[in-house]
Amino acid sequence: MVNVFFESKGHAELVAIFQTEELYMACLPILEYQAKENRMIVTESITENDISDFDFSGEPTGEKPFVTHNDKEIPCGGTSLQGEVIASFSELVHCFGEPTVGDAYKTDAEWELEFKDGTVATIYNWKDGVNYNGSNGQRVENIRSWHIGGREKNVVGRVIDIIEANE
């Protein structure tokens, strides 16, 4: 699986996911053109679908490829924004369990994940909730755009894979 990002100095945004490298290579010239139009570059992350042996319906058919803050303390220091995902609060709760309250200032909800290989990811809202904006902020139940943090860009594809496998 090839996860494709448009990247600038301080921002990376997931723009496409390809099942095969051949299809990605065929689309690469168009992606490069679009990135250049937005003063960005194309980067990619090639991953294996490491969640294929886990049934997210709740049936115990395999071992989950990650743990969350609900299972153990996750070392999230040094993570930063790697991308974003569009998902409902209830979808995230279904996939990752109940969130923490984040920093209770700029964030209202946060999930911390650690994959089997030690890679860490966070999912959180940023400055759009009631903690930061008071009565003008969104309730977490209404937030649809979530930040994905980590130390590596490949966490974006991993988080999205989990959410999509759960649909």
How does the major sheet shape up?
A: 5 strands, antiparallel
- Using DSSP, what is the number of strands? 8
In percent, how much strand structure appears in the residues? 25-35%
Shape: globular
Radius of gyration: 16 Å
Which structural class fits the helix and strand makeup?
A: alpha+beta
Mean pLDDT figure? 86
Largest beta sheet: what is the strand line-up?
A: 4-6-7-8-5
Quote the distance from N terminus to C terminus. 18 Å
Ranges where pLDDT stays below 50 over 5 or more residues in a row are 50-61
Number of helices: 4
Helix content: 25-40%
| H/E element sequence | EEHEEEHEEHEH
What is the number of domains?
2
Q: Which oligomeric form is depicted? A: single chain
Task: For this entry, give a set of tags.
167 residues; alpha+beta; 2 domains; 5-stranded antiparallel beta sheet; 3-stranded antiparallel beta sheet; 4 helices; 8 strands; globular
